[in-house]
Amino acid sequence: MAETTIIQKSKLPDGVRLDPEYYRPEYIKMESMLVACNSKKLKEISDKVVSFGAYSLTNQVLYQDTGIPYLRCIDIKDGRINFANVLFIDKKTHNLLWKSEIHPSHVLLTMSGSVGNAAVASTKLSYPINSNQDIAKITLNKEIDPYYFVVFLNSKYGKFQTTRSTVGSIQQHLFLWQIEELLIPVIDIQHEIADLAIKAENAINSSLQSFKEAILILENELGLRKVQEQRNSTRNLSEVLSSKRIDAEFYQPHYYKIIDSLKKYGSKKFSKIIALEDKNIIPELSKSYKYIELSNISENGFIDDYMLEIGENLPSRARRVVKMNNVLISSIEGSLSSCALVTKEFHDSLCSTGFYVITSEILNPETLLVLFKSMPFQHLLKRCCTGTILTAINRSALEDIEIPIIPTSVQNLIAKKVQESYMMRNEAKNLLENAKKRVEHFIENKYSRQ
Questions:
Q1: Would you state the torsion angle of the CA atoms of residues 213, 264, 65, 234, taken in this order, to the nearest 10 degrees?
Q2: What is the pLDDT of residues 260-304, one digit of tens each?
């Protein structure tokens, strides 16, 4: 049944929104609930809300493989910064974009694309860090805790405001003046909420550390902790003809050092010990599926998010079924680090055809994941990539990679560290969910007592 809301002209908000979506009954009610909590506008409790906004400068940004992290909107989700697919810039570009530098305790809020995702720039991160023009940097005053503020923004009472305020027909956008108008309840339990968020952050850091330790175990075992890239190489014509590759990148010396080390350690070709699960399906039109994309993968191999949709509304690339303990490997050069282990939660989900789905009877799934997340194998995956417009891993090259036969005892150590990492990640997720629910319950209880 259609719903109708009548708003007096004198009560139209600043900027005059005439679109009916803005006045949905549930939005009107939630706004009333925030007012009942004696909320303040963000501009009243912040010292500064900025984004560098100089779109012309983006033409001068040159990305590189390492350097100073350069955050985009897709790097902020679930209340934290995800560095899995972050881009990097050099110091010269960073100095050019000095207005968009991120500082500890900044609250970061996405203004375009996936609007309204928020995270605190933790004091535990390595700085400097920069960001693009679509991320607002918010400096709060002492009246409000940044961790509580982020929990609120990611709750339904923060999300409805950023969703409601967005404008644009093709790509939704949120402007700085709209952000300054957001209603923020300054509640007496904000420090308790902040404590939960900080515990979640610590759990995530422990999760990341456990995963790094798993990679360290593997790289120490293989004797491949440090791989220095070299740019000059001479190869025989016969080798070029047999490999069917004439691009110089394919013949870089560090690739051969990795391959030689793996052969000395004891290895077999990928095709001999790893199976590719590459059968595609056509989703049932009315059936609901969890769908996993490249952007849903965190830096330590978690599936952080997914799309829940019926088959007829899924994108054409949603064609591959995944099972528990499958490992997903990105096939796209720009996101090769997007590898993940499929947990019970995602059994029988669909994933993008941008992934290779693999399994092995010789290597346990945790070891498979860590293997392809390790730097030596990230180099080898990059070597497998071909193409001009969309550079991706060539299947035959992937199946030719040398895979080390790792002792069961070492595999078990790696599996233990990965499982610890997953356990801490789930703890962080539960803490943040609890924090959001406490904020929402406080607002609802306050309103019900009016």
A1: 170
A2: 999 999 999 999 999 999 889 999 999 999 999 998 998 889 998
Q: What are the chain's domains?
A: 9-186 (3.90.220.20), 222-413 (3.90.220.20)
The Cα 403–Cα 25 span in angstroms is 58
What the block records as the tokens of 127 is 């700085």
**Can you give the three-state secondary structure of the chain, one letter per residue?**
CCCCCCCCHHHCCCCCCCCHHHHCHHHHHHHHHHHHCCCEEHHHHEEEEECCCCHHHHHHCCCECCCEEEECHHHEECCEECCCCCEEECHHHHHHCHHHCECCCCEEEECECCCCCEEECCCCCCCCEEECCCEEEEEECCCCCHHHHHHHHHCHHHHHHHHHHCECCCCCECCHHHHHCCEECCCCCHHHHHHHHHHHHHHHHHHHHHHHHHHHHHHHHHCCCCCCCCCCCCCCHHHHHHHCCCCHHHHCHHHHHHHHHHHHHCEEEHHHHCEECCCECCCCCCCEEEEECHHHECCCCCECCCEEEEHHHCCCCEEEEECCCCEEEECEHHHCCCCEECCHHHCCEEEECCEEEEECCCCCHHHHHHHHHCHHHHHHHHHCEECCCCCEECHHHHHCCEEECCCHHHHHHHHHHHHHHHHHHHHHHHHHHHHHHHHHHHHHHHHHCC
Residue 202: per-residue pLDDT: 96
| Residues above pLDDT 90, as percent of the chain | 70
pLDDT (tens digit, 9 = 90+) per residue, 309-368?
A: 999 999 999 999 999 999 999 999 888 999 999 999 999 999 999 999 999 999 999 999
Band (pLDDT 50/70/90 cuts) for residue 241 is very low
The reported pTM is: 0.84
